[in-house]
Amino acid sequence: MASTQPLAGKVVLITGASKGIGAATALELASLGAKLVINYSSDSKPADELVQKIGTDKAIAIKADAADVKEIERLVAETVSWGGRIDILIPNAAVSIIKALEQTEEADFQKTMDLNVKGPYFLAQKALPHMSPGSRIILLSTSLCNWSPITPNYLLYVTSKGAIEQMVRILAKDLGTKGINVNCVAPGPTATDLFYQGKSEELINRIASNNPFNRIARPEEIAKAIAYFAGEGGSWVNGQILRVNGGMTVGT
Q: N or C: which terminus of the chain has fewer CB atoms within 10 Å of its end residue's CB?
């Protein structure tokens, strides 16, 4: 009979973990027995509330800028000081600046690439010395990377996530030699505060209508896909991009 706590004792570091998909993932992995490091960038309240919900013996909140290499080094050091190692690394923190080419400013490009690409890249680098065979790295992309009707204003965001998907391909080959699995979850539209921000009800309904289920995802549904890669089922899965979108996109 399968264990109800398959991640018992595993130390998980999730960036951007105080809200949305990050928070849902933290709760899901905690329910499977994991110990959680909840990284947040500014607002401590939701992070502290999440720690209380999980239990102060199983979770800790650490403030750090996931786009800054020095802050990443400190985040990793504090994680290892608390948990002794890193078993599961989930670079979830990201920014979504929705602008077409003509409207994009250099500051937009820099902010997006720093958090969405540089952050995960160097987080993996700094965490690697503290990860043993059997550890997992689970990156986050977007199903927009292969959605044909995509509009020009998603250029910058999808450019950054395309870089993540290439990172998965190479790291899977590289870190697989060390016994570390690297995979990626690419959600479709998901009911988070960030998704709803600035969108009318009409627009949300139109986005939902692109899906055969005529709805958008719940954060918990994305979290369960991440948990698959983190758990026993993901032991022989490496270098894969799982598009979790209810059929918004199909095929590769």
A: N
- Helix axes 20-31 and 44-54, enclosed angle (nearest 10): 20
Closest to 168 (Cα-Cα) out of 120, 222, 104: 120
The alpha carbon of residue 60 and the mean position of all alpha carbons in its chain are separated, in whole angstroms, by 18
What are the extents of the domains in the chain?
A: 11-188+219-243
Per-residue pLDDT reduced to its tens digit, 7-65: 999 999 999 999 999 999 999 999 999 999 999 999 999 999 999 999 999 999 999 99
Q: How far apart are CA 96 and CA 175, in angstroms?
A: 28
* The residue type at 162: G
- The position carrying tokens 């959680």 is 36
What SS3 class is residue 151? coil
Domain 11-188+219-243: top CATH class: alpha beta
Quote the strand ranges of the chain, DSSP E: 11-14, 35-40, 59-63, 88-90, 136-140, 181-187, 241-244
Distance of CA 56 to the CA centre of its chain: 23
| 142-187 pLDDT per residue, tens | 999 999 999 999 999 999 999 999 999 999 999 999 999 999 999 9
Angle CA 22–23–24, to nearest 5 = 95
pLDDT band (50, 70, 90) for residue 251: confident
